[in-house]
Amino acid sequence: MSESTLEALGGNAARPAQYGHDALVVCDNLVRIYQSGSVEVQALQGLDLLVHEGEMVAVVGASGSGKSTLLGVLSGMDAPTAGRVRVGRWDLMAMPARERVTYRRQTVGFVWQQTSRNLLPYLTARQNVALPIASVPRRQRRARAEELLDLVGVGHVADRQPHEMSGGEQQRVAIATALANSPQLLLADEPTGELDTTTTQEVFDTLRTVNREAGTTVVVVTHDHAVSSLVERTVAIRDGRTSSEVLRRESDGDVVHEEYAVMDRAGRLQVPREYREALALTSRVRLVLEADHLAVWRDGGAR
Ligand code: ADP
Ligand code: MG
Fold first, then answer.
1. Which of 233, 216, 234, 217 is nearest to 225 (CA)?
2. CA-CA distance, 212 to 217, in Å (whole number)?
3. What is the mean pLDDT of residues 201-211?
4. Residue 236 and residue 127 share a domain
5. Closest C-alpha residue for ligand 1 atom 25
6. Does the beta carbon of 222 lie inside 6 Å of ligand 1?
7. Residue 197: inside a domain, yes or no?
8. How many structural domains is the chain composed of?
9. In this structure, which ligand is nearest to the CA of 113?
């Protein structure tokens, strides 16, 4: 029996592995409560999410579901109210202010929805990309900026300022800028929110290229459910929790989308409303364990 099997069986002195021990990003029962006056808003309500190194994940959800709050926490700009959040070796819950700055500079890259917020208007694309690596010698900095602009497919705008570029070009330069200091994790909050469908596709293609070629782990937030056809894994957030996932797989040349419900570590899962309505499931259901699946029956069913 292999050592890992033994460990899995608990036949080893080692303690059971912690939730998400091998993941790059771990959100464990994450809670973020905003207090505005006497009103409390629970933006995140026990969110669980694991992202492994090298993955590209899209996070979708209605407006107000907690997507930006999640990215704010992962970027180190905001601290959660409760729960555990780790990115690589950084425990973002316990991180002192000074480490937070180092974390933001070294570990994450960020792209905002507003094109104007990502780039300085009076600098060229090349200068914008070179800005986060000001400590690198000039010639190397220039070469690195050009290499990144080529990677995201906008080498031709190197000498242009943002107002001389299209929205899609600006967002791709923003991606290159976010990559300048080689972050482990690239976060993008609705980077295509101001773009049309074709340009949206281009920006997602760029993120996939970055993910595949630079090996950067990508978490991209969008309110557009159609993106699940553009990325391998789409996680849906509802009311501050992850509720379902769509995995995109290629099988014999066909693209297959498989939808999964997300079960939290206490075993709770959300049954989609259409299923509940179709079978008139109410507050009490019967669970019947079968050999290879679990059956859920309406109250009074399955006698
Ligand atoms: P999304 O990005 O999915 O639209 P957000 O994370 O921005 O959602 O917001 C989640 C919830 O938290 C919303 O109800 C929003 O109004 C609230 N919220 C976000 N930021 C703040 C804040 N700074 N103060 C108070 N409430 C906030
Ligand atoms: Mg948002």
1. 234
2. 9
3. 93
4. yes
5. 34
6. no
7. yes
8. 2
9. 2
